[in-house]
Amino acid sequence: MRESVEMKEPKKKFFSSTEDAGDSKSLDEVNGSIIVPQDAGFWRTLITYTGPGILIAVGYMDPGNWITSIAGGAQFKYSLLSVVLISSLIAMLLQSMAAKLGIVTGKDLAQLTRERTSKRVGFILWIITELAIMATDVAEIIGSGIALELLFKIPLVVGILITSADVLILLLLMRLGFRKIEAIVATLVAVILLVFSYEVFLAGPNMPELFAGYIPSTSIVTNKSMLYLALGIVGATVMPHDLFLGSSISQTRRVDRKNRQDVAKAIKFSTIDSNIQLSLAFIVNSLLLVLGAALFFGTNSSVGRFVDLFNALQDSHIVGAIASPILSMLFAVALLSSGQSSTITGTLSGQIIMEGFIHLKMPLWTQRLITRLLSVTPVLIFAIYYHGNEAKIEGLLTASQVFLSIALPFAIIPLVMFTSNKKLMGEFANHTWVKYAAWFATIVLVTLNIYLILQTVGLLK
Prior knowledge:
Blueprint lengths: L41 H8 L2 H7 L4 H14 L4 H25 L3 H7 L3 H34 L3 H8 L3 H8 L3 H26 L3 H6 L6 H4 L1 H14 L2 H10 L10 H37 L9 H7 L3 H4 L5 H34 L5 H22 L4 H18 L1 H11 L2 H4 L6 H25 L5
Helix pairs in contact: 2-9, 2-14, 3-12, 3-14, 3-19, 4-12, 4-13, 4-14, 4-20, 5-17, 6-7, 6-17, 6-18, 6-19, 7-18, 9-14, 9-17, 12-19, 12-22, 13-17, 13-20, 15-17, 17-18, 20-22
């Protein structure tokens, strides 16, 4: 590989807590820890590279997706399936770019952003990214808390407090090795996929209408309520923190960056892995919206929330003959699996962002505990103020997903800039069509966000 592929520019250090922090590898404890077999066949090589994609995909099917997708189906039937599809395609494009960035440069998105921006801009981007992590945590906390309430009759406030202790989960898993973490998360994802495939099969959706829903409609932009949920779906599907995570965990496979073929192979198989796993996330998100549409659209019941769906799945007056307590329990198990698997990716992302932006190294449990407590606080305030009213609390979850959509461009823009930079990426810089497709997606997202904000504050009617 030509020399220009590697970073040669001087580093701008700020907020550094250690002198040599800028030279640290991203997720140093697992960086390059998995050896890739040389001269192996396609499938054996793919198996070795399979894993990071499933950790990325978890962020695209966390409880935040559930509430926005179910609400979207309950209110607008299958119309927002097109948003799920477009969001998934954008996610595939961006995550492949994030993986490539990490493989080629040996640095993650947070590290490069820190190095190539001014102190003020870097600080602002760090704050926005930390808030996005907190918004993601809100979804995990609410989803896990409600799942605990549904499964074990634990009061919601107590369940929310229990979720604060999940900081210990990743610490235990990290001792088992990164491949085992990937396998555990894959198992949780399989549970989610199987549960919703089964429940949608029983719901019997209208298939012609379902497939027609993947065709975009202008009403998505002109209808304020639909636009709000559409942006929530985008925010829940294309996750800002996943771009930072993807640029880091793509480096868990050992790659010789001086060998052009080795780098090209790593990019190829990492992209295949990412696209396969994100396709599964697309299916799960589609199933969620279809389930909301098939069961709740046009009903007089107050449905479209976690608790509503749990209760409806065992109420024959709402869902008909398929009603069963078993379906309700399966739903709660899937919700808990989603919340806990998302905890792992949230923890890793928090470490990447904190170390990358401000060079702040601290024990992982301390970093995770601080982040989780900051996220738990507003949820607890809502839970106490509304006396554990799930519907009110889930409204906070929907708002958090819209914030993620608003925060997304602040991660996309640096990513597109870096991966399009030939001085940084060399021959692996984005092809012209990739660059323009990424910029187009960014412009569309920014425009929609501005439109929604103006409508929300009443400047547009």
